[in-house]
Amino acid sequence: MALSVAAVGALSLFAFVIVNLNTRLDNQQRVNLTSIAASEDIVAVNDKLTGELGQLTELTRTAQGALDATAALGPLLTRLDEAIGPAAQMLSSNTSGAQVTNEQLGNIQSILGEVQNTVVPLVTSAQTFGDQGTQLLSVVQALVADLRSSVTSVQTINQMLPLPG
């Protein structure tokens, strides 16, 4: 009889330990699943941020191209002024015998061609950048929303982790 009572007591203790362990494992599994979901959210946000940063890089390239093309106009306009200046001075000082040489006209025409070749891509670039300005605002707004989501997910994970000490 004593052995039966001891065996029932041992079985009861063993059943209690198993139920307690099972409950803890179930709780840990729920925490792990929540942590995995939050981690997947962070990875998704990270991937999205990478794409958005790629868009920002492309916008920066477009803007840099427009700036470079605009900067290239400066020397061309200076050369054009230098080429037109003597001809304009001749015409204003002496209208009766003023002659612009073919060489001067050719030089002016060449510089005007370079100005045109520099300005035409600027029109396309300006149109593209105008559209990209709207895209940039959209990307930045999405970036802020994604960062907020990422912070929330990290806070969720941090709350689930055991505190040190």
Summarize the biggest pleated sheet.
none
User: Gap between N and C termini, in Å?
Assistant: 48 Å
Please state the second-level CATH architecture.
Orthogonal Bundle
Low-pLDDT residue spans: none
Mass-distribution shape? rod-shaped
CATH names the topology as: Helix Hairpins
Tell me the name of the CATH class. Mainly Alpha
> How many domain modules?
1
Mean pLDDT: 77
- Radius of gyration based on Cα positions: 38 Å
User: Helicity level, as a percent range?
Assistant: over 70%
Number of strands: 0
Please give a handful of descriptors for the protein shown.
165 residues, mainly alpha, rod-shaped
Describe the protein's topology.
Elements: H1 2-93, H2 102-160
Task: Characterise this structure.
With 165 residues, the chain is mostly helical. The protein has one domain: Helix Hairpins (Orthogonal Bundle). The chain contains two helices and no strands. The protein is rod-shaped and about 135 Å long. It starts with a helix and ends in a 5-residue tail after the last helix. The mean pLDDT is 77.
